Amino acid sequence: MIAVDKRAFVEATPIAAKKIRIFSREYNTQIEFSLDDVPDHLGVFKPFWTIISQVAKRARLDQGVELRIWSALPPGAGMGSSAAVSVAATAAIYLCFGLEPNKDEIFAVSFEAEKTVHGTPSGIDNAIATYGGALLFKRKKITQIKLTKRIPFVIGDTGVKRSTGEWIARVRMRRERQKPIVDAIIKTIGKISIKGSMLLKEGRLKDLGELMDINQGLLEALGVSTEALNRLILAARNAGAYGAKLTGAGGGGCMVALSSQDGIKRVAKGIRGAGGKPIPANVSLEGVKIEEKQR
Question: Can you give the pLDDT at residue 139?
Answer without folding.
Answer: 66
